[in-house]
Design brief:
By secondary structure, the chain is an alpha+beta fold. Helices cover 33% and strands 17% of the residues.
Length: 473
């Protein structure tokens, strides 16, 4: 389930085992992968190394990372780039070879891009075409995973609902991979599409799967600060890597005295700074007017997104705000994607093997999807097929879905209490409010937010993206 980068990498690597690939959108569209402006982090330069990439990943993650997972990620980054090239992805090049950009938290340029700031779209298009041509993959019409069948505690079937007709279909299933993405859409301000609402996380939880690090939510510091329904446009970190500066209303730099890396500090530091300015009634702007070169080639997505709101980033400062962007936590898995439920696997943002720690390093997410998706696919290709069990079976679903009004309340609640800066007393108040409002706590979205609140309250000390203002160290 899931046809973003992680799901596609898993399906392709599972050959020759037959795979039924199910996504919520037509091939090559939808989800967070298509929106990703950053590229793939990989130590490809002569003066870079996997060890340096690992150090930056651990530092950004507040050393909460799983060390073995980090070593596997960075050690396979170059192989991932070459595999993607073999799938037909034409990465941007310059006179020295692959063009390498720099983003927040990285000590040197190591971001490989395709189509400037349209890397996610390029990856999704190429991998979707490869999956459509692969003989072992059957790509089903867009559908929603409605329920999971368990027999003797093991995955034995799924119920799919067609997204067009809503007609249900039950299928036998011995191995189920969840690659359903994140949960940013549970927050009032997010860069994620509405489908990234934690639906896979909620279903795994209902099946009894363990969660891990669910309190760690990353907020991108530079979403476009405009009034609109749904996801806020993302303004790529690569602009700051190219020299753009974050400034206040008076044009003064906001990060210079806060962190040694300034505007290229890890995202949690920058997001909190922008949040503080906005909470105080001011605004923060991204000033990229000093950047030279071909904007249409380097940053076509930014030019188009800003243009839709009457902003020319080459001539005007860009108003920015933090927004929920990536979940470091998720379904607890080992490095092979195995969950605590037999037959259930997870990969990509819905999963948590500890590779990102308490805060993800920029451009490690697409890399994670490719590296661990391929690892899981290879493991699944070798698994002996399970015969159906003869024990009792039962169906598990998420439970009641919040209506539009209840969802709006939950999104505001999550944003105000689980945002870039958290307060213990406010989180306790939110817990009590959730528990006493039947419209909220009986919904699967409400149950997820309650789990996030519980995890955030249990971690009383600030760590990475989990920053508590009441933590008096």
């Amino acid at each position: 389930m899931g046809a973003g980068v992680a799901g596609l990498a898993t399906a392709l690597a599972a050959a020759p085992r037959p795979v039924l690939l199910v996504g919520g959108s037509p091939p090559g569209s939808g989800g967070c992968t298509a929106l990703a402006q950053g590229g793939i982090a990989a130590a490809m330069a002569f003066d870079d190394s996997a060890a340096a990439h690992a150090r930056d990943t651990m530092t950004a993650g507040a050393n909460h990372n799983d060390y073995e997972a980090v070593q596997y990620l960075v050690g396979n980054a170059g192989l991932a780039v070459r595999w993607l090239q073999a799938q037909g992805i034409d990465f941007d090049r310059d006179a020295d070879g692959l063009q390498l950009g720099r983003e927040g938290g990285h000590g040197c340029p190591r971001i490989v891009h395709a189509g400037g700031d349209a890397s996610g779209h390029a990856l999704l298009t190429a991998l979707a075409q490869a999956a459509q041509q692969a003989r072992h993959i059957t790509w089903r019409a867009p559908a929603w995973l409605d329920a999971i069948q368990l027999r003797d505690g093991r995955i034995s079937g799924v119920a799919l609902a067609d997204t067009a007709t809503r007609m249900p279909q039950e299928l036998a299933c011995a191995e189920l991979v969840l690659a359903t993405g994140g949960c940013g859409a549970l927050f009032a301000a997010t860069t994620n599409p509405a489908t990234a609402d934690g639906n896979g996380l909620a279903l795994a939880l209902a099946c009894g799967a363990r969660l891990r690090d669910s309190e760690f939510v990353q907020f991108h510091p530079t979403a476009l600060d405009v009034e609109q329904d749904g996801a806020l446009p993302l303004i790529t970190e690569a602009l700051r890597g190219a020299g753009a500066r974050l400034v206040d209303d008076e044009g003064r730099a906001v990060m210079d005295t806060l962190h040694p890396m300034g505007d290229l500090a890890p995202r949690d530091h920058v997001a909190r700074r922008v949040w503080e300015y906005r909470q105080a009634g001011g605004r923060v702007w991204l000033d990229a007017t000093s950047l030279r070169g071909d904007w249409e080639q380097r940053f076509p997505t930014v030019v188009a997104l800003c243009g839709q709101h009457g902003i020319d980033p080459r001539q005007q400062r860009i108003p920015v705000t933090p927004a929920a962007h990536f979940h470091m936590g998720g379904i607890a898995v080992d490095l092979d994607g195995y969950t605590s439920v037999p037959g259930l696997y997870a990969v990509g943002e819905v999963a948590c093997n500890g590779v990102h720690g308490a805060n993800r390093l920029a451009s490690n997410s697409l890399l994670e999807g490719v590296v661990f998706g391929r690892r899981l696919g290879h493991r699944l290709a070798d698994i002996r097929l399970h015969a159906p069990s003869s024990g009792q079976h039962h169906w598990v679903d998420r439970g009641r879905t919040a209506d539009a009004q209840a969802l709006g309340i939950l999104q505001q609640l999550a944003w105000s209490t689980l945002g870039p800066v958290r307060h213990g007393s406010r989180m306790i108040e939110a817990e009590r409010y959730l528990a006493t409002d039947d419209r909220l706590h009986e919904t699967w979205q409400g149950k997820l937010i309650a789990r996030f609140l519980l995890a955030a309250l249990q971690r009383q000390k600030s760590l990475g993206a989990h920053f508590r203002a009441d933590d008096w160290k």
